[in-house]
Specification:
Layout: E1 5-10, E2 15-20, H1 37-40, E3 55-58, H2 75-84, E4 88-89, H3 92-96, E5 111-113, E6 118-119, E7 122-123, E8 128-133, E9 146-149, E10 158-161
Antiparallel strand pairs: 1-2, 3-10, 4-10, 5-8, 6-7, 8-9
Length: about 240
């Protein structure tokens, strides 16, 4: 199946969204089902961890209400199967909260595709999404959500919402949480070009050599005495007295 990639990035942590386009050219994956839980006839989660969510789920989503063979669905395969029913992919948060627990196909202890590109503030690489535990029991083959390439063969459980929204009324799918800070610390060496704006505070010590161009404004304090005329080049250390010429 041909894919294209849409990239939307807001720098410094607001959100990152990188999702392959669905076969129908719509927003993919959808973040709200196009059919409601009642229209699909799916049950709402009744477990304590997900009881407050207006979300239902189903695992027998193959044509005829059957199960897909285990570990045979790519990310796009899984999302398409759900959306063809009017449902959507479950989020990693929903799966961990046991929204899909006990919905069939023996997937409670297996890894299941989620719609998440970001989970707990950590973003996957482009072309990857999170595979989450099928029931959130954290005792199966995927105890916590992990990033996997979109071509990885995993499983699918579909989710739907109490209130549906038409696909053409849905906007691009944002990440569920901000990405981690860009770097863990300062770089070892200065950048090849100046930054777009000055630093928030002055440096703690002067540079080892004069700058190529004068500063934008005067220094904080004048020199102790003026020179009669400037030297052709700066001296390594200041002279004891002004030069004659």
């Amino acid at each position: 199946m041909a894919q294209s990639v849409t990239i939307s990035v807001l720098l410094l942590g607001a959100f990152v969204s990188i999702f392959p386009a669905g076969a129908k050219g719509q927003v993919f994956p959808l973040y709200t089902s196009t059919k409601s839980c009642s229209a699909l006839g799916w049950r709402f989660c009744s477990f304590d961890r997900c009881g407050l969510l207006d979300v239902c789920s189903e695992s027998e989503v193959r044509e005829g209400g059957n199960c897909f063979a285990k570990d045979t669905r790519t990310f796009v395969d899984g999302g398409t199967a759900c959306e063809d029913l009017g449902a959507r992919m479950c989020t990693a948060e929903e799966l961990v909260s046991e929204v899909a627990r006990g919905t069939g196909c023996q997937l409670d202890f297996e890894g299941v595709w989620s719609s998440n590109f970001v989970y707990n503030g950590v973003a996957c690489a482009p072309g990857e999404h999170y595979v989450a535990p099928g029931s959130g029991k954290a005792t199966g083959t995927i105890p916590v959500p992990v990033c996997k390439a979109d071509s990885f063969l995993s499983n699918i459980r579909c989710c739907a919402d109490r209130t549906a929204i038409a696909a053409d009324q849905q906007t691009a799918h944002p990440a569920s949480a901000p990405i981690q800070a860009p770097t863990h610390g300062p770089s070892d060496a200065p950048t090849d070009t100046p930054t777009a704006s000055p630093s928030d505070a002055p440096t703690t010590a002067p540079t080892d050599a004069p700058t190529d161009t004068p500063s934008v404004g005067p220094t904080d304090a004048p020199t102790r005495a003026p020179t009669v005329s400037p030297t052709e080049a700066p001296s390594d250390t200041p002279t004891d007295a002004p030069t004659d010429a």
